[in-house]
Design goal:
single chain; alpha/beta; Nucleotidyltransferase, domain 5; 2 domains; about 35% helix; carbohydrate metabolism; ATP-binding; ROK_cs
């Protein structure tokens, strides 16, 4: 068995997890975001009834494999802390840490929509855009602990309906991104990006849910917005599929609640990849709020003896 925690900027979701994925003694506590001692203390208290059982953590951040420090924008107290080392010392147990998007992909590969696939790219279309890459049941380590982050790289391309590429580049919005760059996919393809894109394309301010509803109803302005959204998002995913060779893409996040969106995006991606396929690549994720905790179980060898 493992102790697993899914840690975000608001709450710590904690449970004892059995090898078959069954959760016991689940509880939720607020995340102490401003004080590292309180953060360590909260996890120490959660672990105390279970001496010696390893602790696996899915966190909204990235652990640098060289320094052990976690870069978590919503949990600033961790940014100067060797989190794994400190937690291991104070809880007296083995600790492993993984990015929450990686854990989502691991969970869907082992227990969910991508079960049975060796090569999985997990896509999160939520407030922003995230991703995780899993091969043979294991996350793929990357530079600085980062792999699969398709949301943060310049994603500007020239729309095909404009003949002059220079004109296209002058019209495409280069919105500033929280990562410090401009024109990232995260600024366009997540829920906030879609809302921003809709206003830029000539629409009035709407929620992402309202835009999708209007699009599904055939509204002309929403259709225009979604054509631009689809162009950028499908291009980025086509790059991912061509590079990774993933055979399935489970999709989570608020935008994935639109089956029409996932179906349309799947068709657009399959139209742009190098190897044609008639089989859908994108699938709605199955595990919901359990994905972080279940994915954390696969961060080490205890429960990942074989490929997912």
């Amino acid at each position: 068995m493992l102790l697993c925690a899914d840690i975000g900027g608001s709450f710590i979701d904690f449970a004892l997890v059995h090898p078959d994925g069954r959760l016991e003694h689940r509880q939720t506590v607020p995340t102490p975001v401003a004080d590292s001692e309180n953060f360590i203390g909260a996890l120490k208290a959660l672990c105390a009834p279970y001496p010696g059982i390893p602790l696996h953590i899915a966190i909204a951040g990235v652990e640098d494999p060289l320094t052990g420090r976690v870069n978590a924008a919503n949990i600033p107290c961790l940014n100067t802390l060797a989190v794994r080392e400190q937690l291991s010392h104070h809880t007296q147990r083995l600790v492993r840490i993984g990015n929450d998007a990686d854990c989502f992909a691991l969970a869907e590969a082992r227990f969910g929509a991508a079960k049975g696939h060796r090569n999985v790219f997990g896509l999160i279309l939520g407030t922003g855009v995230g991703g995780g890459f899993v091969l043979d049941g294991q996350r793929v380590p990357g530079l600085g602990g980062v792999t699969g982050e398709l949301g943060h790289a310049p994603a500007v391309i020239a729309p095909p309906f404009l003949a002059d590429p220079e004109e296209a580049l002058s019209l495409v919005p280069l919105f500033p991104c929280g990562c410090g760059q401009s024109g990232c996919l995260d600024t366009l393809a997540g829920a906030r990006g879609l809302e921003r894109l809709h206003v830029w394309a000539g629409g009035r301010a709407e929620t992402s849910h309202a835009i999708l509803t209007l699009w599904e109803q055939g509204d002309a302005q929403a259709t225009k917005t979604m054509s631009v959204w689809m162009l950028y998002t499908s291009a980025a995913l086509a790059h991912v599929i061509n590079i990774t060779g993933s055979t399935v893409v489970p999709v989570a996040g608020g935008l994935s609640n639109s089956a029409a969106l996932i179906d349309a995006l799947d068709r657009a991606v399959r139209d742009r990849i190098l190897v044609p396929t008639t089989q859908p690549l994108l699938r709605r994720a199955m595990l919901g709020k359990n994905a972080g905790i279940l994915g954390a179980t696969c961060l080490g060898p205890e429960m990942c003896h074989e490929p997912c």
